[in-house]
Amino acid sequence: MSVEMEAVIGLEVHVQLNTASKLFCGCSTRFGAEPNSQICPVCTGQPGVLPVLNRQAVVSAVRLGVALGCTIRQRSRFARKNYFYPDLPKGYQVSQYDEPIGEHGTLEIWEQGQLTPIRVTRIHLEEDAGKNVHATAATTSMVDLNRAGVPLIEVVSEPDLSSPEQAAAYMRAMRAVVRVLGISDGNMEQGSLRCDANVSVRPKGAEKLGTKAEIKNINSFKFVQKALEYEISRQIAAVQSGETIVQQTRLWDTERGVTKPMRSKEQAHDYRYFPDPDLPPVVVEDDLLAQQTNVLPELPLRRRQRLMQQHQLSDHDAGELTREKELADYFEQAVAAGANPKRCANWIMTELLSRVSDAREVIGVPVTAEALAGLLGLIDSGKVSSKLAKQIWPKMWDSRRSAEQIATEEDLFQQSDASAIEAQIRALLEANPDKVEQYRGGKQKVMGWFVGQVMKATGGKANPSMVNSLLKKSLDE
Ligand code: ADP
Ligand code: ZN
Ligand code: MG
């Protein structure tokens, strides 16, 4: 008989900081440059040079630590993690070991419309390694050291996640947080956000953790989920057929959709960690800590929850609007200027987003949030129909005039004058006695034709619901 199993997952996320220069030298961190064009004696490990800590990276680490509610260590230390690899010219990576900059935090994830806290064990600063380049046709491999020394923050979670979906939600939450904090672009395709996924299985409800495998270097939300799904079923099948899971580092093979063994898991002592003698302790002054605490923005998922509660938005709409801070700002500015929240959310997600290539560009588009509120207000008061509003909108975009002004100048207000509409209807019915006959003889479909004619005659401006009811009244007389 087989027992029901459950998965336990902990993630180690690497966030590449968006500082202009590297962690210990002045080299540029720009992505996509010519290989080895952004290197110097420090980041290539030449003898006789000394590292100098990039202050901005420390500020970013404090910022993230505060946002995750970590206890910030005001005096932390860099350590050398020793190993050999061609992309690591110094023979060690500068990281933090027993004194990380932050500990005991939480990252909230979004699950079925609710916030679930996931504990964060620690965050620490470290430098990235270079990149080995294996050209397909060549028999040699190359090394590009542009990335060597680029600042990273590693965020280690507790094994609190229990499904691949939760793990993907955790990555999405992390991306949203680092972006709203402005410390990283969180771009997974370019490797600014990567994760190692640790996973084990155990009988459902058991206390004791199973033996884990670590899946290295996953670089998309989809792959986090896929790699974990595969690995969990692999482990469950292994356990159920009586095998013992061995602690392992595995690789996700994107092409075949499987994880495969890379090496047996190294232990911390294999790295011979020791304090870096070239670097003084990292000091976070009271001022810096206080300042970062004071300027902490509202985190995206908190904002999502608030928008749902405050404006009765659906989970979906609130999720879309808080995808980028700029979009949520635009929405809230429009609502503050009087826009109906639901109408405004719809307008932003369709009409506004179709006009920008990136949602962050909405700050600075020709139609301000206040101007949009003006347009939506005209719909609310029945002065224009949604259809007319869609004609006015591009004109606002082109000329920066207000909706009211455009409607006035170009005569685009909705016609809700009953006697004017009735006059149109009367003329129409008189000119088309045959159609009237048909309608009265039971051919209801002619109604649509009448409506169309009135709308046409009024240049689309007649109030459609009035046209409908007045037509019915005249025809049924
Ligand atoms: P290691 O010593 O292998 O580096 P750590 O204890 O530092 O392991 O944990 C690394 C990551 O693995 C953390 O995110 C942690 O939550 C997760 N983790 C630890 N043990 C397990 C386990 N048995 N199953 C799943 N994840 C685990
Ligand atoms: Zn350098
Ligand atoms: Mg560890």
Q: Helical residue percent?
A: 25-40%
Beta strand count: 16
Numbering strands along the chain, what is their spatial order in the largest sheet? Answer: 2-6-7-10-1-11-12-13-14
How far apart the termini lie comes to 78 Å
| Content-based structural category | alpha+beta
Global outline: elongated
Question: What would the average pLDDT be, to the nearest integer?
Answer: 93
Query: What small molecules does this complex bind?
Result: adenosine-5'-diphosphate, zinc ion, magnesium ion
- Into which percentage range does the β-strand content fall? 15-25%
Major sheet attributes? 9 strands, mixed
Structure write-up:
This protein is α+β, with helices and mostly antiparallel strands and 477 residues long. It has three domains: 5-292, no CATH class; 302-409, no CATH class; 418-475, Orthogonal Bundle (Arc Repressor Mutant, subunit A), CATH 1.10.10.410. It has helices spanning 55-67, 164-181, 221-240, 286-294, 300-311, 315-321, 325-336, 341-352, 369-380, 386-399, 403-409, 418-431, 433-440, 446-457, 464-476; strands at residues 5-16, 71-72, 75-76, 79-82, 92-95, 102-111, 114-127, 131-133, 142-144, 151-157, 193-203, 213-218, 248-253, 258-264, 274-275, 282-283. The longest helix has 20 residues, at 221-240. The chain is elongated and about 95 Å long. It starts with a strand and ends with a helix. The mean pLDDT is 93. Zinc ion binds at residues 22, 25, 27, 39-40, 42-43, 149.
